[in-house]
Amino acid sequence: MKKVISRLHTFAACAALAIPSAMFAQQIALNNDMPSAPNVSSSTSGTTLNRPASPAPAIPVWETNFDRWVDINTFNYGSRYRSTFASNGARSFDQGQQRLLLDGKFKFDEQGRYGIGFHLSSGHYFNWAYADFIGGGQREFIQNVTAKMNPYQLSILNFTPVAPGFYSSGGTALYFRQAFLTAQPIHGVEAQFGGIGINHGVNTEATSYDDDGYLSGERLSIKRPQNLLLSEVSYTRAYLGDLYTPNFFVRGQRLAVSNYWQVLGRKDFGKRVAVSADYTYSQPEGAAFFLKTTREAIYGDVHESKAFDSVRFEAYQRLNAGQYVPGFLFSTGKGWALTLSSHIKKTAYLDAGVADIDTGYVNNLGLNTHAILLGLSVNGDQYGVGKRYFVRPTIPLTKTVSLVGNFSQMFNTGQC
Question: Whole-model pTM?
Answer without folding.
Answer: 0.81
